[in-house]
Specification:
Oligomer: single chain
Radius of gyration: 33 Å
Number of helices: 22
Largest sheet: 8 strands, mixed
CATH class of the domain at 412-471 and 510-672 and 708-752: Alpha Beta
CATH architecture of the domain at 412-471 and 510-672 and 708-752: 3-Layer(aba) Sandwich
Distance between the termini: 89 Å
Strand order of the largest sheet: 13-14-15-12-16-17-11-18
Shape: elongated
Number of strands: 18
Helix content: 25-40%
Structural class: alpha/beta
CATH topology of the domain at 412-471 and 510-672 and 708-752: Rossmann fold
Length: 823
């Protein structure tokens, strides 16, 4: 024998040998997960019958390749088909549905990856009552005009000319509560005033009407006859109104322009950031009687524009004073108040007209604020002297034993219906789409909706995601209540104003207005999507707000807190707080964009299970009615009861774990999967590194704007999550934020790295790092610097303003938030 005589005999039994599967390509983490899932499936799969006939294997090992967005693809050679066991005949026992294994096979049909939205979600602690709520009587509007024969503007001290103009032209038959309490005080008295009223109660007209009344009294008697005094635009500057944002300044100017149509000889104008300072100087040189400005730009004009004479100024109005203090305008406000009070008050005009007989004999300061926070009290110490506190309901209950006014709680309008949604992080995006889809399911039920998001990058991403890829149709426009800078008079409003320019074709909304997808319905096939934040150019901001205000089609505005203060957009029926506000006061202002002037409205806020549910107690403090809880499944079931139209055509359809098709759960899975695939198309084509795996930290390709926008939005959102006020930071604990689940709400399969700033980094520095420095900076200074882009600044500023801005941004960068942008 040629061999050594050793014989070996192995018994392998009747069970066929399982070929080893090798994985190639993809990330190493994905290969490890796929290998574990194959082993788990081999362990859990039922054992084969020993009588089942098999075909010998070719012995060639199979290979598997993990393709992102497709799944595990098992490949083999010539003997692959022969490796499969022959099918056994079907028996009667097979009529019953077989129990599916707990772990599904990693190879997924149709080249898709499972989203798994409804697994591994945290459990909510809110108790939901299954019983339907009892129908209660509709709450009486708290900000509606008063009723009664005695409630009219003439009884408040206004002239018949102004009262008739309000009734016929502005369709205002009766004043609101805050107007009833404010107008007589400012018309008859010369004391400083602090106005505190809820949103949508007509606070702007409350301080504009007394100013216009006393200025018109210089040239007209009570019966409308002339006093012989010729008042014109060069007679002097009598009133200055300051507002924190450009949008609010333009809205106040629009209200004043409509009011001054009864007195066209009075001229008003605005000076705000983002406009040409040269044209503003030209308007000031020709003369103006009422000036509306942002603090930064007015400070610049006081320093550099010599023709701006404030010697005749009788009124200084600080609208939204708390917001101006939060945005870092304290130094500018001190400068403005000091410049106005520096020179003695002039008692007559250049033409010799005596002003003290009709106008106040002293400078009157009016401070308007929704709250009595510490910064407002500090602003009051700077600007007010023996001020009168005026609220909407001045009753005995709001006075102490000595008869002095006490601080009253500021609440949302009583007719506003508030609710909060408990939504896990993974389901936030599909729940938002389902909510909007159900909102616009019926024609005419909701015309306009506003979605508040924490940061500008997130606004950009959600706008790009929800907008249609088809060419936008020409929207139907109505005459706007907000004049565009292109078609407004060049030198203010009034009889002495210059001839308006010819209207120009406005193309500044090409990137901010687009038709929507996902949320359309057969009843509303056309929904116009808008976006607005402080990083946009001023022309785009003005044109976008003008488009949203005047749109006749159903419209949705995705915006930051830039739209939370003072804006009065008609027909806003729904406010969605997709990201909770940074402070409870901001929440009240957000929901105050609806239910204005006695009209009904709804507001919904998204909260995650866990610590965020405790935030409901804070919401109850600022609500006249208890906010109603709602679980995400009810919204998904209502919104996804019908298929969702996808951007590229087609509808959502899917199969859930139970094999059921076209259910709301399967549609939610299919909707999330389609969104993820929109971002994965370009991501999978990225260049792999030398080891065969894609660099997960590599930047997105330049030709993939949606994926890059999703990553940037996620990073900015996580940074913004850490900026809640100190008192409410316990409800929004960044340490409990699940980054992987939150990434799915941006259409990402995993959380991108490089968040930076030390806020939610992967490693915490040993010395406390930038996160502690960022928190130690304090909420006030932090939000002052990052919110500066939303104010009236911009365009041309002096070197001192540039130096102050650069110093603040450098300090913020050292604190680890150089990329932070809350818009």
């Amino acid at each position: 024998m040629a061999d050594d005589g050793m014989l070996m005999n192995f018994e392998i039994g009747d069970v066929p040998i399982s070929n080893q599967v090798k994985f190639k390509g993809g990330r190493w983490r994905d290969r490890v997960k796929a290998q574990k899932s194959v082993k788990k499936w081999d362990t859990d799969r039922p054992k084969k019958d020993s009588n089942t006939p098999t075909v010998p294997s070719s012995g060639r090992p199979k290979t598997a390749r993990y393709i992102p967005g497709v799944g595990v693809q098992i490949e083999g050679g010539e003997g692959d088909e022969a490796d499969r066991p022959a099918k056994r005949p079907r028996t009667d026992s097979d009529a019953q549905p077989a129990q599916r294994p707990q772990q599904p096979r990693p190879q997924i049909k149709s080249g898709q990856t499972s989203s798994k939205l409804f697994t591994s979600n945290p459990t909510h602690t809110t108790t939901f009552d299954d019983k339907p709520a009892e129908e209660t009587e509709e709450a009486k509007p708290s900000n509606a005009p008063l009723s009664g024969e005695a409630e009219n503007f003439t009884a408040l001290g206004l002239s018949r000319r102004i009262a008739q103009h309000l009734s016929t032209k502005l369709e205002m038959k009766a004043p609101t509560a805050i107007q009833k309490n404010t107008i007589p005080q400012l018309v008859k008295e010369d004391n400083d005033a602090f106005l505190q009223a809820e949103t949508g109660s007509g606070k702007t007209l409350a301080y504009l009407l007394p100013i216009v009344q006393r200025i018109t009294a210089l040239s007209q008697n009570e019966d409308g006859s002339s006093t012989g005094v010729q008042l014109h635009r060069d007679s002097g500057l009598f009133a200055i109104v300051l507002a924190p944002t450009r949008e609010l300044c333009k809205q106040i100017a629009a209200v004043l322009e409509r009011l001054l149509r009864c007195a066209p000889w009075i001229v008003s104008t605005t000076v705000t950031g983002g406009e040409s300072k040269k044209s503003e100087k030209a308007r000031l040189r020709k003369g103006v009687n009422i000036l509306i400005a942002t603090p930064g730009r007015l400070t610049d004009h006081l320093d550099n524009t010599k023709v701006l004479d404030v010697g005749t100024v009788r009124w200084l109005v600080l609208d939204e004073g708390d917001r101006m203090m939060e945005m870092g305008f304290e130094d500018d406000l001190k400068t403005i108040v000091g410049e106005i009070r520096k020179d003695p008050l002039k008692h007559e005009t250049k033409d010799g007209v005596v002003l003290d007989k009709v106008l106040p004999a002293r400078r009157v300061t009016v401070l308007c604020s929704a709250t009595m926070k510490m910064n407002v009290q500090k602003l009051g110490e700077i600007s007010l002297t023996d001020a009168v506190h005026i609220t909407a309901t001045t009753t005995d209950e709001e006075k102490d034993a000595e008869g002095n006014m006490v601080e009253s709680a500021f609440a949302a309008p009583s007719q506003l219906k508030q609710s909060y949604l408990i939504v896990p992080a993974k389901l936030r995006l599909v729940t938002l789409i389902a909510l909007l889809k159900s909102t616009f399911a019926r024609k005419g039920s909701v015309m306009k909706a506003i979605i508040f998001i924490s940061c500008a990058d997130s606004v950009n991403f959600h706008f790009d995601l929800l907008k249609s890829t088809a060419p936008p149709p020409k929207p139907k426009m109505a005459p706007s209540a907000l004049p565009s800078p292109d078609d407004s008079p060049s030198f203010g409003t009034g009889a002495n104003a210059s001839t308006p320019k010819a209207p120009k074709v406005d193309t500044s909304t090409d990137d901010t207005v687009a038709p929507a997808t996902y949320i359309t319905s057969p009843a509303n096939p056309s929904i116009i999507l808008h976006k607005l934040h402080g990083s946009l150019p001023q022309s785009s901001r003005t044109a976008t707000l003008n488009s949203f205000t005047s749109s006749k089609d159903p419209a949705v505005l995705i915006t930051t807190d830039i739209s939370s203060r003072g804006l009065d957009v008609p027909s806003v029926d729904l406010v969605v707080e997709y990201d909770p506000a940074f402070a409870a006061a901001d929440h009240v202002h957000r929901v105050g964009r609806t239910a204005r002037a006695g009209r009904p409205g709804k507001a919904v806020i998204f909260l995650q299970p866990g610590c965020e549910e405790g935030y409901v107690e804070v919401l109850k403090q600022g609500a006249s009615s208890v906010p109603q809880p709602q679980l995400y499944d009810a919204v998904l079931q209502k919104g996804l009861s019908t298929p969702v139209q996808l951007p590229g055509g087609g509808e959502t359809a899917g199969e859930d774990e139970g094999g059921r098709r076209n259910t709301w759960m399967s549609r939610a899975e299919a909707l999330q999967l389609s969104i993820e695939q929109r971002l994965l198309v370009k991501e999978d084509d990225e260049t792999e590194n030398s080891r065969g795996g894609r660099n997960r930290y590599a930047p997105a390709k330049k030709d993939d704007p949606l994926l890059d926008a999703a990553r940037q939005a996620f990073k900015s959102h996580v940074r913004a999550y850490a900026t809640h006020v100190r008192e409410e930071r316990g409800y929004f604990d960044k340490g409990q934020l699940h980054l992987g689940h939150m990434a799915k709400s941006f259409g990402l399969r995993e959380a991108p790295g490089g968040i930076g700033g030390g806020v939610v980094g992967r490693k915490r520095p040993a010395n406390g790092g930038a996160a502690n420095k960022f928190a130690a900076a304090g909420q006030g200074q932090k939000r002052k610097a990052v919110s500066r882009e939303d104010d009236g600044e911009g365009g041309e500023v002096d070197e001192e303003a540039r130096r102050r801005m650069k110093a603040k941004m450098n300090a913020l960068a050292k604190a680890g938030a150089s990329e932070f942008n809350i818009g």
